Amino acid sequence: MLNHWFRSLSARLWLTSIAALAVCLTALAALVIYLYSHFPEKMLGREEQLEKLMHVVDGLGFDDAGNLVSVRLPEREAWLFNVAPTELKYRVLDERGSVLFASADTRDSHPWLEGDLATASGRIMQVRIGGKPFDIMTQQVPHGQAVYYVQTATSKRLNEVLIGVKIEPMPEIVRITFFIATIIFGLTLTFTVRRVLKPLRQASRAAASITPRNLTTRLSSEGIPSEIKPLISAFNETLGRLENGFMVQQQFLASAAHELQTPLTLLRGQIELQPEIEDKELLFREIDLMARQVRQLLHLAEVSESQNFSFGEVSSVDVAQDVVGYLERRADRKRVQLQMETLNAPASIWADQSALFILLKNIVENAINVSPPDGVVKVIVDDVSIQVRDEGPGIRQEYLPFLFKRFWRAPDARHDGAGLGLAICKEIAVAHDWQLTVSSPGEGTLFTVLL
User: Fold this and answer.
1) 379 vs 44, higher pLDDT
2) How confident is the model at residue 185 (pLDDT cuts 50, 70, 90)?
3) What is the CATH number of the domain that holds 393?
4) From CA 72, how far away is CA 57, in angstroms rounded?
5) Does the global pTM surpass 0.70?
6) Domain extent for 128
């Protein structure tokens, strides 16, 4: 079962997609961790400083005349600037570089950067303030005719601490994200693959239902992926060729059987009219055997085509009685007694009367042939089945799988035949959706037709 699952297309698609997702997520996670681990200042430091800088820019307040009059920071940012004045600072400068507003202990006029402030806008510059290394970020803020500059300074040590706090849980976050994403993707992929492969399963069931009796059936390509459509088309073309070959075979079989009947009848008549011919009985026996085989070939050709059946309400008891009456003389010649029992038989069944007659005749005839002198062949009809039981030597267990194959005869068969009688019975049973079974526990054989 597990091996079958691994060999299925859906399992391969599922495993391939999961493997591809795992590889992609692993590569992406490794790249992110590598960048954040080896370039933390560029990946996280700039983001942190830009965020603080924009809070100051957004907090600039102007009066109606357009003059800068205040800086209002959000509560969290204001608290940070106040609680760590030696590690985190900001300044608001005018166009000449004069300090207009600043965080605590930052109002001295000593510039943080040398040179033109405009050229430093949008960049991070590393300088030393009070002997400590800082990262300075400058942003130009034009307002009306005036131009202002906002600067934030973050100590190198504070940047390292903040970056460490963010990087430390990152591998665990990546692992959890990877695990959850794989589970969710695997579950959703299961339903996706089943839906995508649904047309293939439907085509497989349709193909499995095609038998020699419905070779006209073709697989539908509706909803089939374009990559599979050539396979469906090729399968339908193969069915067409198979149907044509089967029809030709059946037509040849029926034509040959028809053509052989007349010469055999004429041959028998000519032999009867020639008194000088010796061993006429042996010749008649061979001609009768050949005629019987021709009739069986005709029956086989007829029952192999569903359109040859004419279904209607049929009394199984009446057909069984007709078979017993038809074979009564043959049974008498073999000194075999035919008995019929009726046990709650149905009033009628839906069947082809001629086909049911042929089926029962072949089985009862075989039972007569294998029965010993003074043996009994019983035909039992009830509401769900028809049974034929004989008192012959029985059938060896290794022969049972081959019993209904065309032209198969047991190596130790003691009566003449072509091996077609039970094959015809099987064809008739299949056409009626009946179940034909045989059992031979010891002496005697029981054939059962489940209606």
Assistant:
1) 379
2) confident
3) 3.30.565.10
4) 9
5) no
6) 1-196
